[in-house]
From TrEMBL:
InterPro entries assigned: ABC_transp_permease, LivM-like
Organism: Stutzerimonas stutzeri (strain ATCC 17588 / DSM 5190 / CCUG 11256 / JCM 5965 / LMG 11199 / NBRC 14165 / NCIMB 11358 / Stanier 221) (Pseudomonas stutzeri)
The protein, known as: ABC transporter, membrane spanning protein
GO molecular function: branched-chain amino acid transmembrane transporter activity
Main location: membrane
Protein's UniProt keywords contain Hydrolase: no
Keyword annotations of the record: Cell membrane, Membrane, Transmembrane, Transmembrane helix
Keyword Membrane attached: yes
Organismal lineage: Bacteria, Pseudomonadati, Pseudomonadota, Gammaproteobacteria, Pseudomonadales
């Protein structure tokens, strides 16, 4: 973390301009995409992109590595599925149930994890996530290995039929953009500045009088809630929730997405999620295992793009800006 280039308010401007351009291009592309690509695939990308951005809020901006984020993602998928199918709630309320459940799980796991630092905190998140996995395996409402199948999408606000792929896509896109706007607002607020100060030097943040544990727990709960939002959407998109959603492999996959795109960047995890999801879709019918291809790409990224692909682009632009200022 400390090896990264320092960013002053002046040098931050080109990064903000780059990020703004990328976001505007991305929004326009996403609005047009369902007319050229399969909406179901695009919705999968958006769900995992939001999941990766939620994870990045915790790792990239707070410095807490979690190997248990599948508990929030998959837990919300189960909660949403049960609320919609068994309780008959409309999709918007079903997703809120999933988000609330994920936030509650985040409160419990985060409260225990932040008591330790480094690898010990990470292993606590992994252990508690595995406990939740076995709970989902045994709990009656999850239907064990079969999962919850045939989840009805229902009607949004009582009149928008989400069985229509385009309506469902634009609903997912709207929720994704709302989630990204929330993340952007958090990281560019005084609260986000405090989170970054904790990431860079926790002892100094304590010496300045900040309640570090409270801020870390708040970031943990927000990250869990946003991961739950992604999980609830995913359950409605694919109309099922299974143990795969709460497995340790899912936790590892979101770490990979974030690392490939770039930790601590707003759009990096989106790029990483799109790349990993596209590879999984492309090699699904191939004899070449997708995990092998993803692993090779990850090794190349670690060796060549230490900050992630988007992270290296940011660093390159910042470095050129600093060189021009030095020449002047």
């Amino acid at each position: 973390m400390n090896s990264q280039l320092s960013v002053t308010p002046t040098t931050k401007r080109p990064l903000l301009r780059l990020e703004t351009v990328l976001i505007l291009i991305g929004v326009v592309a996403l609005a047009l995409a369902p007319f050229y690509f399969y909406p179901i695939f695009l919705m999968k990308v958006l769900c995992f992109a939001l999941f990766a951005c939620a994870f990045n809020l915790l790792l990239g901006y707070t410095g807490i590595l979690s190997f248990g984020h599948a508990a929030f993602f998959g837990g919300a998928a189960y909660f949403t599925a049960h609320a919609v199918k068994e309780w008959g709630l409309p999709p918007e309320l079903g997703i809120l149930v999933g988000v609330a459940g994920a936030a509650f799980l985040g409160l419990i796991i985060g409260f225990l994890a932040i008591r330790r630092q480094g690898i010990y905190s990470t292993m606590i998140t992994l252990a508690l996530s595995q406990m939740f996995f076995f709970f989902c395996l045994q709990a009656p409402f999850t239907h064990g290995e079969d999962g919850i199948q045939n989840i009805p999408r229902g009607h949004l606000f009582g009149f928008i039929d989400l069985q229509e792929p385009l309506y469902m896509y634009f609903f997912v896109l709207s929720v994704f953009l709302a989630g990204m706007l929330l993340i952007w607002r958090v990281i560019n607020s005084p609260y986000g500045m405090i989170l970054r100060s904790i990431r860079e030097n926790e002892n100094r943040a304590i010496s300045l009088g900040y309640s570090v544990s409270r801020y870390k727990l708040g970031a943990f709960v927000m990250s869990a809630a946003l991961a739950g939002l992604a999980g609830g959407l995913k359950a409605l998109v694919f109309q099922f929730a299974t143990l795969t959603d709460v497995s340790w492999q899912m936790s590892g996959e979101v770490v990979l997405m974030t690392l490939l795109g770039g930790i601590g960047t707003l759009v990096g995890p989106i790029f990483g999620a799109a790349l990993v999801t596209s590879l999984g879709n492309y090699f699904a019918t191939s004899e070449l295992p997708v995990t092998l291809v993803t692993g090779i790409i990850f090794m190349v990224c670690v060796l060549v793009f230490r900050r992630g692909m988007i992270g290296e682009l940011y660093a390159s632009r910042l470095g050129k800006k600093l060189e021009r200022r030095a020449d002047d």
